Amino acid sequence: MDFFTNENIVFYLLAYLIGSIPFGLILAKTFAGVDIKNDGSRSIGATNVLRVVKKTNPTLAKKLGIATVILDALKGTILLLVGMFIFNLSAETLWTMAVLSVLGHCYSIYLGLDGGKGVATGLGVYIVLIPISTLIGAIVWFIFAKLLKISSLSSLLALIAVIISSIFINNGLDIGSNAPMYIIAFIIVYKHIPNIIRLLKGEEKKVV
């Protein structure tokens, strides 16, 4: 029983379980009546919500896409803030929670360990733990999203900007190691392998 009453273990479980909530799937089914797991890229993220719902309701698609980004980010952010400011959890615990939140989104227990690409949830945890670098990444994403209109490439370039800037700004983070930040980045890149292959082939679709 001590296992389930240990404060850190409880937060680790919550991080994964909350991270696993497929908000994009829920919003698209509830408000648009479509199953994004059976259409488009079959991802549960905002880009696929936008792409699939746009076929029948462009105005609603934008709203649901924005809502998905916000909720997917918040499921990483809110628990970290609670752990940081209310429970005074250590930096090591917070970074472990961050990794588990992204794992939950990408490998959701509610979807048979399937899930999204991890970008919004990664943003949600990074903005709490490495805020300056994350803001730099957000600016990079905004610029390239406007210029290229390719969601995956813009996200990957933003991720690179976060990692590089953090190496200079927060080298060692607060725990003497960059490992958790790299693990989150690796998960996101790994989930984007199909997108990377399409990019190399010139087949990746634009978001218009």
From TrEMBL:
**InterPro entries attached to this UniProt entry:** G3P_acylTferase_PlsY
Pfam families attached to this UniProt entry: G3P_acyltransf
Q: Keywords of this protein's UniProt record, alphabetized?
A: Acyltransferase, Cell membrane, Lipid biosynthesis, Lipid metabolism, Membrane, Phospholipid biosynthesis, Phospholipid metabolism, Transferase, Transmembrane, Transmembrane helix
The UniProt transmembrane annotation reads 9-28, 64-87, 94-113, 125-144, 156-173, 179-200
The pathway that the record names for this protein is: Lipid metabolism; phospholipid metabolism
Query: Which catalytic reaction applies to this protein?
Result: an acyl phosphate + sn-glycerol 3-phosphate = a 1-acyl-sn-glycero-3-phosphate + phosphate
**Alphabetical list of SMART domains matching this protein:** G3P_acyltransf (SM01207)
Task: Give GO terms for biological process.
Answer: phospholipid biosynthetic process
Membrane topology is: Multi-pass membrane protein
What are the coiled-coil residue ranges? Answer: none
* E.C. designation(s): 2.3.1.275
One term of GO molecular function: acyl-phosphate glycerol-3-phosphate acyltransferase activity
Q: What is its main location?
A: membrane
Localization terms from the record: Cell membrane
A single GO cellular-component term from the record reads: plasma membrane
| Free-text function comment from the UniProt entry | Catalyzes the transfer of an acyl group from acyl-phosphate (acyl-PO(4)) to glycerol-3-phosphate (G3P) to form lysophosphatidic acid (LPA). This enzyme utilizes acyl-phosphate as fatty acyl donor, but not acyl-CoA or acyl-ACP.
Subunit-structure text: Probably interacts with PlsX.
Which NCBIfam families has this protein been placed in? glycerol-3-phosphate 1-O-acyltransferase PlsY
Q: Which family does it belong to?
A: Belongs to the PlsY family.
**Which PANTHER family does this one have?**
GLYCEROL-3-PHOSPHATE ACYLTRANSFERASE-RELATED (PTHR30309:SF0), INNER MEMBRANE PROTEIN YGIH (PTHR30309)
Protein name, as recorded:
Glycerol-3-phosphate acyltransferase
Q: Which organism is it from?
A: Aliarcobacter trophiarum LMG 25534
